[in-house]
Specification:
CATH superfamily of the largest domain: Gcn5-related N-acetyltransferase (GNAT)
Strand content: 25-35%
Distance between the termini: 26 Å
CATH topology of the largest domain: Aminopeptidase
CATH architecture of the largest domain: 3-Layer(aba) Sandwich
Largest sheet: 8 strands, mixed
Shape: globular
Number of domains: 2
Bound molecules: coenzyme A
CATH class of the largest domain: Alpha Beta
Structural class: alpha+beta
Order of helices and strands: EHHHEEEHEHEEEHEHEEEHEEE
């Protein structure tokens, strides 16, 4: 068995097979178009690949995708060393081939391949099938708690200093504090826009409007959000809240934006830095739940890259 990078034609062949798994709400043609459109997005063009595990005769046994993702290693002196990490998505084995260890072999060969890349730091994935299969290949699970907030009527601009627009993602991202941990992943503006591109694709199928804003600021705090997939929800991609009152203002704006856009709720992935702030928001249409799927799991790709217990995995990193 060996690993190969798929050609465009092979990617299209995989799309036809993965439709049954990830094509909900779409016809096979619409799913093929979605995949093509997402692969054409600048973030994908800058570092997305599809990988195939092939048998000796060239037959494809399993596949997955990788997206190059920025990450930083903090030196003992405190400075940040940038590197490349890889977000792994769409691990797939055809039903008739499952249970033979092909996905595990794919993950192991892929790690060996990614370890050879210059500047490599770590791999991250978001498991929909629990931790066990990926733990076998050296991935370590991170906590996965979500906050669900009900929409509330009102002007989203009311509680905050400003609402952000999609064309302001880069500036807004620049306001966010880097996590104070020895290693972390950090998205680019194009990466965050890739999420919004998914929302642009799905808005028509969901019959809802795209949110008019992409986030908000309150004092030194910043939130970035969007419609990002096939659920009619306002998803928080990044949140840097510096006080409870600013966290409240930003999330109240999100709830109002969800209401204005006809979305069913706000979903926020809890990060270690949020933990002390969010319990104070409890009650009044706000609940904390164990996440269903999308369990973040991380594997260092070279010695010296730690996986800190408080490593943040914001929704903006998801693939
Ligand atoms: C998950 C998947 C890639 C596994 O492929 P595979 O080639 O059969 O994987 P392996 O043979 O290496 O490992 C199989 C293990 O995965 C586990 N697994 C498969 N589907 C699972 C699920 N839905 N929930 C929990 N575990 C699951 C099997 O129980 C088995 O575990 P075990 O060996 O400890 O008994 C394949 O089932 C698949 O394509 N599923 C649909 C797409 C999907 O969910 N992909 C994962 C996205 S994170």
């Amino acid at each position: 068995m060996h690993l190969v990078a798929a050609t465009e034609e092979q990617m299209v062949q995989r799309d036809a097979l993965t439709y049954s798994e990830w094509g909900k709400l779409l016809s096979p043609e619409e799913y093929a178009t979605r995949e093509k459109r997402l692969r054409a997005h600048p973030w994908s063009r800058s570092g997305m690949r599809t990988w195939l595990l092939c048998a000796g005769d060239g037959g494809v046994l399993a596949s997955c995708e990788t997206f190059r993702t920025g990450s930083f290693l903090r030196t003992d002196g405190g400075s940040l060393v940038p590197g490349d990490s890889f977000a792994i998505a769409s691990v797939f084995t055809e039903e008739r081939l499952r249970g033979h260890g092909y996905a595990t072999r794919l993950m192991d060969l892929l790690a060996t391949e990614l370890e050879l890349q210059p500047r490599t730091h770590a791999a991250i994935l978001f498991s929909d099938v629990g931790p066990r299969i990926y733990a076998r290949s050296g991935y370590q699970a991170l906590p996965a708690w979500d906050w669900h907030l009900s929409p509330t009527p009102g002007d989203p601009a009311g509680p905050v200093d400003s609402l952000l627009r999609e064309d302001g993602l880069a500036t807004a991202l620049g306001r966010l504090r880097h996590p104070d941990v020895p290693f972390f992943f950090w998205p680019t503006p194009a990466q965050l826009d890739w999420h919004l591109e998914r929302g642009r694709i799905y808005a028509r199928h969901l019959g809802c409007s795209l949110p008019a804003s992409a986030g908000a600021t309150a004092g030194a705090s910043t939130i970035l959000w969007g419609l990002v997939g096939r659920s009619p929800e306002l998803t928080v991609l990044m949140l840097d809240a510096r006080s409870t009152s600013e966290a409240w203002a930003l999330l109240e704006a999100a709830r109002r934006e969800a209401s204005r856009s006809g979305l069913s709720r706000v979903v926020l992935w809890e990060e270690p830095s949020h933990a002390p702030l969010l319990p104070l928001l409890k009650g009044g249409g706000t609940t904390r739940v164990a996440r269903d799927g999308s369990l973040p799991m991380v594997r260092p790709l070279r010695p010296g890259v730690p996986v800190p217990p408080l490593l943040p995995a914001p929704r903006g990193l998801w693939v």
